[in-house]
Amino acid sequence: MQINLTLIGQMITFGIFIWFTMKYIWPPLIKAIHDRQARIAEGLSAADKGQKELELAKHRSVKLLQEAKLEASQLIEKANKRSNEILEEAKEKSRIESQNIIENAKKDVAQMQAQAKEVLRQDVVNLSVLGAQKILEREVDATAHSQMLKTLSEQL
């Protein structure tokens, strides 16, 4: 194998190329690779952090949903209880009102009966006076015999 000047020139050129590459090309490439690795690592840590936050948010949303359901059921229970109370109050009021109406009706009936009895008594007294007048064929003075007529009406 012969070493000639072309081979030595190529080796020197290759050495200069390696030195130039190591000095000017390789550092920016290494820096770009390290920057890229750092960004990828940051992205992965941010993704992990986001995943953890997502899990935490899911747990919080489930908890909030359970609390909302519990609160809604409590509100529904309170509303049902209040509606039952209002219904019972209305039933009690209507029962009391119906009793009052019945009592007033009974009083009215008793009063009407008393009035009817009084009218009937007066009619009986008048008929008795007319009957006695017919029997005696003379007029009986109602004012003079009012005590007797009063006693007669009370007995009837």
Task: Extract low-pLDDT stretches.
Answer: none
**Terminal Cα span:** 169 Å
Helix/strand/pairing category: mainly alpha
Sum up the overall morphology in one term. Answer: rod-shaped
State the order of secondary-structure elements, H for helix, E for strand: HH
Range of strand content: under 5%
- How large is the radius of gyration? 60 Å
- Relative helix content: over 70%
Mean pLDDT: 88
Report the total helices.
2
The number of distinct β-strands equals: 0
Largest sheet: none
Detailed description of the structure:
With 156 residues, the protein is an all-alpha fold. 91% of the residues lie in helices and 0% in strands. It has one domain. The chain has helices spanning 5-136, 146-155. Helix 1 packs across helix 2. The longest helix has 132 residues, at 5-136. It is rod-shaped and about 190 Å long.
Annotate the secondary structure layout.
Layout: H1 5-136, H2 146-155
Helix pairs in contact: 1-2
Concise overview:
The chain is an all-alpha fold and 156 residues long. The protein has helices at residues 5-136, 146-155.
